[in-house]
Specification:
The chain is an alpha+beta fold. Helices cover 20% and strands 33% of the residues. A five-stranded mixed β-barrel has the order 8-9-11-18-16. The chain has a four-stranded antiparallel β-sheet with strand order 15-14-12-17, with no helix packed on it. The chain has a two-stranded antiparallel sheet with strand order 1-2. Helix 1 links the parallel strand 5 and strand 6. The relative contact order is 0.13. It comes from Halomarinibacterium sedimenti. Keywords: Hydrolase, Metal-binding, Zinc. Its cofactor is Zn(2+).
Length: 323
């Protein structure tokens, strides 16, 4: 079947011709010094019609591992499609990225500000612009996140239960785990769903940290999906999955029984049996000892790496039902 020539696309009022690459500026508020802040948007528009894929990261400014994944997609030229179009935004929350913090300067979580408003808070205005200027062009979205506050996530894809299309795409991506989770109100994922744009939400690693295994998982998964959509250039090799993706239907948090110094004795992604020792809490003087044991058998896909914890802190996220 012959390829059909693509038409120009228009983003932020600028025309992007088939077969061209453009870097646009997602401009909004300035710094206190009146210094402008421009968020680069890299558009690769091929000569031929095809899907439009959006890659986003840094919606939370301290989640730099996601930024690293999209950076690699761009720097290696993986985002240059042989059909269709890719739109890459490596850092959405540039304010948070500059300060190495999660939220916007107004204290709001951008991922709880969608679909936004034209004249609302700064976070709401950015969400509004993203949903009205970028997302209407998009067929698929890949949003890259990490765990927060010392909690290291095993690389996994989050999708809603009973979405067969996204489940199929997630299996093509082939992260170690797929986690069924509900779309949160006012999240980017939920806003995209309401606009009919399917999203794979990737989680891996922890905030303010870059892990090469997590980065490689995100890059390789993106290549597999682009290949599946017929968009990946032939010069790129697609690695075959070494293990099938494990689908987690339900899960629970195991929390600290006491405050103190914490050390995990298992690795993220590990399968544990009920009653197996997972970690240890003690005080600086060696007077108290609490052994954290698995409440059930399952896969541990999030481990708290903080050396000091308080009673009630989430230590491990473990599957309770695997499909």
């Amino acid at each position: 079947m012959a390829k059909k020539k693509a038409s120009p696309i228009h983003i932020f009022g600028e025309e992007i011709l088939p077969g061209t690459s453009r870097e646009l500026n997602f401009s909004f508020a300035k710094l206190h010094t009146n210094t402008p802040i421009d968020v680069p948007i890299i558009v690769e528009h091929s000569l031929y019609e095809g899907p439009v894929v959006l890659f986003t990261a840094g919606i939370h400014g301290d989640e730099v591992n996601g930024v690293e994944i999209v950076r690699q997609l761009v720097s290696k030229g993986i985002n240059k499609p042989k059909i269709g179009t890719t739109i890459s935004i490596p850092i959405v929350n540039v304010f948070g990225f500059l300060q190495k913090v999660r939220d916007f300067p107004d204290g709001r979580d951008l991922n709880r500000s969608f679909p936004g408003s034209k004249k609302g808070s700064l976070a709401a205005q950015v969400a509004y612009k993203l949903m009205n200027e970028i997302v209407p062009h998009v067929d698929y979205c890949f949003d890259f996140h990490t765990g927060g506050s010392s909690r290291f996530n095993a690389p996994h894809i989050r999708i809603e239960r009973n979405d067969k299309h996204l489940a199929s795409m997630a299996k093509v991506f082939n992260a170690p785990f797929i986690l069924y989770s509900k779309n949160l109100q006012k999240s980017f994922r939920n806003a995209c769903k309401k606009q009919g744009v399917p999203m794979l939400l990737f989680e891996g690693g922890k905030s303010n940290s870059i892990d090469s295994i997590v980065s490689n998982t995100g890059v390789n998964g993106s290549k597999r999906v682009l290949h599946h959509l017929g968009m990946l250039q032939n010069k790129f090799k697609v690695s075959s999955p070494t293990k099938p993706t494990i689908t987690i239907d339900s899960s629970k948090w195991i929390r600290a029984q006491a405050s103190g110094m914490f050390k995990s004795s298992i690795k993220v992604g590990q399968f544990v049996k009920r009653g197996e020792v997972m970690g240890h809490i003690t005080d600086p003087f060696g007077k108290i000892h609490f052994w954290i044991k698995a409440s059930n058998e399952g896969y541990v896909f999030n481990v708290n790496e903080a050396p000091l914890v308080y009673q009630g802190d989430a230590l491990f996220h473990i599957s309770t039902n695997v499909l």
